[in-house]
Structures are given as C-alpha cells and as structure tokens.
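Loading example: each entry is read as two labelled lines plus one structure line.
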Amino acid sequence: MLKTRVSRRKALKLGVAAAALPLVHIRTAGAAGKLSIGFWDHWVPAGNDVMRKQVAAFAEKNKVEVQADFITSVGNKNLLTLAAEAQAKTGHDVQAFPSWEVLNHVNDLEPMDDVMGRLGEKYGAVNRVVEYLAKIKGHWLAVPSSSGTQNKGPCGRISILKDAAGLDVQAMYPARPEHTALADAWTYDAMLKAAEACAKIGKQFGMGLGQTSDSVDAIGSIFAAFGAELVNAKGEITVKSDAVRQVLEYGQRLVKFLPADAVSYDDASNNRALISGQSALIWNPPSAWAVAKRDALQVASDCWTFPPPTGPKGRFVPYLPYFWGMWKFSQNKTAGKELIEFLMQRDNVEARCTVVEGYDLPPFDGMLDFKVWEEVQPPKGTVYNYPLRKHHNSMAHIAALPAPPDVAVQIYNRGTMPTMFAKLQSGQSIPQVVAWAADELEGFTR
Amino acid sequence: MADGTSISANLAAPARAAMAPPSGMRKFMRRRSTIAVLMAMPLILLIAGLVIWPAIYAIWLSMLNKRMTQFVGLGNYAFLLKRNTFQLVIFQSCLFAVTAVILKALLGFIVAHLMHNIPGKNQRIWRGLLLVPWVIPLALSTLSWWWLFDPSYSAFNWILNSLGFQSVPWLGVGWNARFAVIAVNVWFGTPFFMIMYLAALKSVPEQLYEAAAIDGAGPVQKLLHVTLPMMRNIIAITVLFSLIVTFADFDIVRILTAGGPQDMTHLFATYAFSVGIQSGDIPLGASVSLFMLPILAVAAFFVLRGVTRRTQEIAA
C-alpha cells in the first residue's frame, strides 16, 4: 500500500506558510504584547532586509512579538491599505504614511508629541515640509521617517551639460561644503538656456508634465521659486496674480524644450530617459542613478545630483517625506511608540541609509552628515549634494505649500501645476490656463 | 414485560407518527423552495456580505461631507455636476463606453460569422486563438500595450520611424490617448462578443435559412430577417453586460494614462480613485463611482424586460 509522504494537514500548513511569505513574524517571549507594523516596501530589497534586522533587535530587547509587513506603493497599494484600515478601524498598529496621508487621516491618528519631543531634542529640528504635513494644530500626528523620504532635485549628465550648455555641475556644486559663484549663477534662466542647448542636440531635459509625483514636485518647485501660489495660506484662490503669470510665461518658454510626450510622463519615464542616455537632466532622487549603476554604468559614471536653480523667491528643493504614524485604535500604543523611536535613532537611520546608497533622507538636521553621501560612486561624490546642505541656501518644498493642507492635497494629487504647463505646451494661452486653474481650485476649496 | 401487548404498542407508535399529518414547521422544511433557499444560503450570505453591504455603505459614504462627519444628502452629486472636470469625465466615460461597446459588438459579430463558416477542427483552433486577449489578465495585457505606446520606447513609433514616418505621441495628446484606451478595450472585449454571438449563431435552426432561401432571400435578407431577429436577445444582453462593465473600467486607463493627459482620459472609476483615495475625499470619490448607477439600473431594467417579453413570445 502506498503511503503518501505529504499529508493534507502538512500541505495546508505549507500553503499557509507560503501565503505568509511577504510577512515577517518576529516571535519573542512576547511579554510586552503584540505589535503589527506596515512598512513601505523599499525599492531596494536590501532596504527591507536591514529594517527586518532592526525590528528583530527591538523585538528581542523589549520582548514584543512584532509582525512587520512590507506594503508596496506600486499601484497605490499602500494608500488603499491605509484607506481600508481607517474605514475598518482595525489593521496594523503602526503604518507608514506617504507625504499627504497623515493629513488624510487626521482624526484617526494618535498624537506623537512625546516621541517627537525626545527625537527633536536629540537630533535637532525638522524642515518646514515635515511640520506642514504632520504637525496639525500644534500636535505631531506622525513621526517623520527616513525610509522612503527623498529630495527630487536635478540629476544631470556631467559631460552633456558641460559640452552642450557650458554648465560645469561638478564645479558648481563640488562634493565638499563649499559655496561657489557658479551656484549663484544657477538660475531658472540658466536652466532654460541649458534646456535649449541640450534640446538642440537631442538630449532634452526629461521633465514630466504629467500628473504623477515627479512631475508635480519639479513643476511645484518652479512655481515656488517664482512665488506663484495657487491658493494662499488663508485658503484664498490666488491664481490670478502677477507671480503666477510670471511663472507661466517662464513655462511657455521652457515647455518648448521638453519632450513632446512630456505630458504622458509617469514616475518611471524620466528615469528611463536618463538611463537610456536620451536625456541630459532629470529631476529625481538617486534611484535613477542607482539603476543606471546596475544597467548602464557609463551613464551612472556621468551623473551628478545637485540642487535646483534659484528663482526670484529663492531655491526650492522638492522634498517628499514619509511618516510613521499610529492609529488611535492600536492595541499596543506603548510598544508602537517605542519601536518608532528605536528605529529613528541615529545609528539605525544611518545603517538603513547606507544600505540604500543614501536614497533615504533622515528628517532631522542633526543627521544630515552621514558619510554615505560622500562615499558612494561612481563618480565619487555624485550624491554629496543630494541632501539639503547649509551652503546650498535652499529650502525644502512640497508643491502647493502653503495652501491649507486639505486643499493642497488636491492640488498636488490632481497635478494642477504640471497640467497648467501641459496646457501651455498644447498651445493654450496664459489667460485660458489661468481660467481653467481657477475653476479647478474653486472645486478644491469646497 | 415481553408480552404481545407491549410489542404491538412499540410498533404502533412510529406507524401513527407516519400516518399523522405533518406539523407546520415540518411541512415548511419539506417544501422544495425552502430547501432551495437553504442550500443557496451560503451564496446569498456571501453576496450580501461582499456586494449588497459594500454597495449600501458606498451609497451612505457618498452622502457624507469630506470629513465624513455630516450627512449632506445629494450635495456631493450636485457639487460634482457643476465642475468642468467632472463634466469632462462624464463625456469621456460615455464616449469610451459607447464607442468601445459598439466596436466590440460590430467586430464580434463579424468575427463570429467568419468563425461560423470555418469548418470543424479549424474552427476550434481559431476560436481558441481569438479568445486569448480575453483570457490574459487585463492588467498584464494593458502593461504590454503600454510598452507599445510608451513615450520613450514605443514599439509602434519604432516601426513608424523605420518606415520614415515621424513618431506619434500616443499617450501625450488627448485624442490619441482616448483612441489608445478605446482600442485596448476593444482588443480585450471583442472575444467575449465573438463567443457569445457564435453560440447564438449555432442555435439558429438551419431550417429557417432553408425556408428563407426557398422564398428567394439573399444573404443580406437572411441576415436582417433571420439571423438578427433570432439573435436579438443575446445581442441585448451582451451589449448591456458589456456597457456596465465598460463604464466601470479602471485597469486600462489607470495603467495606460492614469487619466491624463490633462484629465482627457479619466473615466468614472479612475477619477473616483484619484479624488477618493489619492486626494483623501472618500465621499466625493464614492459619489463619482456611483454616478452612473441609476442610469445603468434603468437601462438594465428596460433591456431585461424586453428580453423577457421576447422569450415569452417565443415560448407562446
């Protein structure tokens, strides 16, 4: 008689184990209870591995049973998970909240003033974008995380910019704390000239005019540099202003030198334009460079990341932070706060940042001196100027700031600013674009 | 104890029970309809839990204010109707659904006829091949289409360039992008129409064509007076079904254009996602997604009533 080696019970167990593969279940003595946390699934797999190790260390030390899930942002799965958990009032205790999501869930989040107080005391201040997105009515509703937090300044091809546009980006922003005269001359007019020169040789700037975040962040920073606010801090629609007209006039000139299909760019299109060698410059975190390092080393060796140009109102760097927040319905708030605080300790943040080659930016000023940005290559120092440094004279910015957050989130997610440029590219006049934007904004301020 | 009386008493009890008229409850439980309902109960509960409850919840959500703290009745719908972008979404959804369904029905009808005339084994092979677009998961096949239309590496543009033509910004110009999303939907949905129409064609009795031929009917007359009347029910149901599904389409637009350029390809579902999930206004998103519900429900009522009537006429 044949004897089956795998019983049904065993097969069932195997099935359950296989289904649970994306989850990490860290079991310890569990004296301090259970905790579940939903992290952002990092682009770089090693980013998840180091996080797992740190969570395991916390679990071991504090005798907490931790379940860590890594939820992808592909297809907005993380946003869907947040929306579902907020509606169901159950799910993870702690979740990763992309930039605007703290504001979208204000009523469901546990205040984090105590954690932020201790971290701030230890590691210094956070920038204005972090405060704008997570400090609501004087209370911190989430802790800014480094995991996924990024700047999206220009990443250009050293040789093409030098040869075609006479722009020596390495001299302009060297890999050392030095302010240069060339940096002062890096204005939006200079960028326009460079864009024109590069377009002439078929290496157009890969700046998108779509509705995804890369397009919104880059164009949003241009608006800020011209002082062009669509809605002001009081919630008044200010699209019919001189500053907006000025930025649209600039946009009219710029869009001529962007790719014809810039309006259909998504967040991967600009990366591909750079990696394939078609583009002289994109606005992106160093993920494009990191992929080029793997797939097109010659391109990666010719890349340099540096701050955006300056405009009449200053130099604004697109900044997109991630947060860790805890639901009010969490069953283990003490352990949740302890875990967040543990993960935001300098050593842990630096270890994670190093593994992802500097991609993850720490939110606290006192952590902006990690060695990783000096060391990664090729070429050496390529991302030295990726984090905001004092000598850059720049400011972190998120598109639509300073509009009231509930209006700003709609301006951002509906891509109002890049769409205004897209309309210019399609041949619409400035008054037509302004009229369209005014109507849209009226809808956002309901 | 073991005398004849006691034995007969024991035997008589079940006999009396069998003879007595069944109680009300037992009668109820023995009814075929009751058994049918009980057996269908797991499915009914499943539908109630996964369809009816979420639908009612969505309707409730659509009547709340942005922070979900106040009942606003139909306020969200009234607000939406005043917005230019939403008017554009209504136009696009109608354009997308109506154009795509007409093209799918037309192509499906033609292909079904061609298929019907292919003999035996070959027909099975062709039928299988033509069903492939419908069998592949839509998100996956749309991704392949996206690569064909991609701004940087469009395969179509590569071919055009090889032939000496200029590149076409497939997804970068409004009408091009609208054409692209409709084309992909037609590519995906035509096999469904084809297989339904083929089944309908096979059920038309051959004698009707023979009788029509004896009366001197040509191919066009046979099509108009025999085939189409015999297929009316299946055409009505497939068009209705496809219209509902196409109005609710999400994957194609989400993957190909995400609603762009300049909102010119947004449909109800993608716009609802953008407003509800991405911009954090869940009640308004729910209103967008439910907007077509009454219109489609009324259409479904009339179409299905027509089908029932025709079926009854045929039966009579």
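Chain A touches chain B through 43 residues (CB under 8 Å).
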